TrEMBL record:
This is Biotin carboxyl carrier protein of acetyl-CoA carboxylase. It comes from Chryseobacterium herbae. GO terms for molecular function: acetyl-CoA carboxylase activity. Residues 81-157 form the Lipoyl-binding domain. NCBIfam families: BCCP (TIGR00531), PRK07051.1 (NF005457). Pathway: Lipid metabolism; fatty acid biosynthesis. SUPFAM superfamilies: Single hybrid motif. This protein is a component of the acetyl coenzyme A carboxylase complex; first, biotin carboxylase catalyzes the carboxylation of the carrier protein and then the transcarboxylase transfers the carboxyl group to form malonyl-CoA.
Amino acid sequence: MDIKDIQNLIKFVSKAEVSEVKYKTKDFEITIKTPLAGSDAVYAQPAVYHTAPQAAAPVHAAAPAAAPAEKAEAASDDSKYVVIKSPMIGTFYRKPSPDKDVFVNVGDEVSVGKVVCVIEAMKLFNQIDSEISGKIVKILVDDATPVEYDQPLFLVDPS
């Protein structure tokens, strides 16, 4: 079983809303448990633990109470941007390694196929390429934090 098969299995389990799935062959075994099972972890051989992302909660808690007009204006501003989403569950990294520079910063121009981040899943580092050309407007995830499948990572202004 290769990494693409594992990623597809994880996607299937998350969409099927089941609590646990086991897949076993003579030389490979994987068990995936979802939060429906009372745990926020994904278990595999070797075990890799993922907790629910904490980045979304502080954004709302830290934001001061704004007038409804300001909230509507901010929402309409974000609607013109394209979102780059996580294609898998894993840990988000902005750098290829701790001693290297980040792939992209806010304000950087990206083109189709440019690497914007790395997501580690089961000790494999998967480069995530931009699917669009434009300028990075916002980085929505902190470095070295867990991400979920289809979670927004970047906002890109395609104009």
